[in-house]
Write the structure tokens for this entry.
Amino acid sequence: MRTLITGATGFIGRALSHRLQQNGHEVWALSRSGGAATKSIPAITRAFAWDPLGESPPAAAFEGVEAVVHLAGEPVSGRWTTQKRQAIEESRVVGTASLVAALADLPERPRIMASSSAIGYYGDRGDEPLTEASRGGDDFLAQVSQEWEAAARDAEGLGVTVVRFRTGIVLGRGGGALKEMLLPAKLGLGGPLGSGKQWWSWIHLHDAVGVIEHALTLRASTALNNTAPVPVRQKEFAWELGRALHRPAFVPAPAFALKLALGGFAVELLSSKQVLPEATRASGYEFRFPELRPALADLID
């Protein structure tokens, strides 16, 4: 089917565009760069310019489109200044509202919208197992994620099926979280962050994209945790990464140093979210990389 992707030039968007194209779908894109997206990503056959904080996307971008995948949003990595927090929130909430408003004006609407969210939805929850049915948290990213999902769910009132996928720490080659971790880990500095006891809910890029593609086949609105079935504590993650790289992983990064360097974003690295993809598995998705060690072995030469 013809699928329209926002945020197609991002780390997940690029992989998803290629996967859909390989599986016979026609991929269109909404991107700030407009037509440049087709040059940088061969899988995209047509692209339209759209600023999520500007005007509504053009109606021509939805012509014959059966599914929309909404990935656009300001990256959460980096120091959380007041300006950064505003960009994180507005790019998600205002951008999603703009997209849904464009759907409302269409004479014929896509059947389904798969809209990105994040496991930040749950907040810092210690050792509590978290499924799609768990309540949301109350910190900054939790509140943003809940507003983000609420904006997406407005499309349900237009007769559009809305699947909200809450993505964890995505591990893949050439980008995402793993790219940021590799250099310090190779230098033997990839030890625990803070206490290392916090749960990290990760997912291999193959499965992160697979869950989104699977979501497009669903017939009822729902939330899906886009995380591997076996989360690990952060110190175990650090140990497994060091093992894969044949490097020691015992030099810790104290919590106070992370907070000093990263400000608010350090809270996200130190928070604990044991997220389980209960509804994702119940919907029929089968993970290729359910456990961390084989996932890292696949990604690290």
Summary: The CA atoms of residues 52 and 176 lie 22 Å apart. Residues 2-167+205-226+276-285 form a domain with the Rossmann fold fold (CATH 3.40.50.720).
